[in-house]
Amino acid sequence: MANSSGFSAFLKGRCPQCRTGSIFKGGLFSRNFKDVHERCGHCNVKYEQEPGFFWGAMYFSYALIVGLLIFLSVLMFSLYDDPSLLLLCVVIIGVSLPLTPFLMRLSRLLLIYVAAPYRKFKKELQG
Fold this sequence. Notes:
This protein has 127 residues and is an all-alpha fold.
């Protein structure tokens, strides 16, 4: 196992088991920013446990975007006494749209890291 911490490996998008192999195929702002390797290049762990595994990342993505929208709304209402609906929409869309690739990758990373302990438990049950 690499000497990096689990949090550091998470931030770098590394495998939750060996903390060395890269999870994503491309960079954050490349055309294939959401594409995940099938297996870790270092320890050969399979990232997608079953077909449709990453559909579960939608729950994390939803929570992240709702948290961002609440934060931006509270910020706008604290900076301006009564911001107009147009200003709120422009700020929310202007901030959330560029963050979409980051939030999608973050939600997939969260799902992979949350499911990692259960992957080990599943292996123990099977073998």
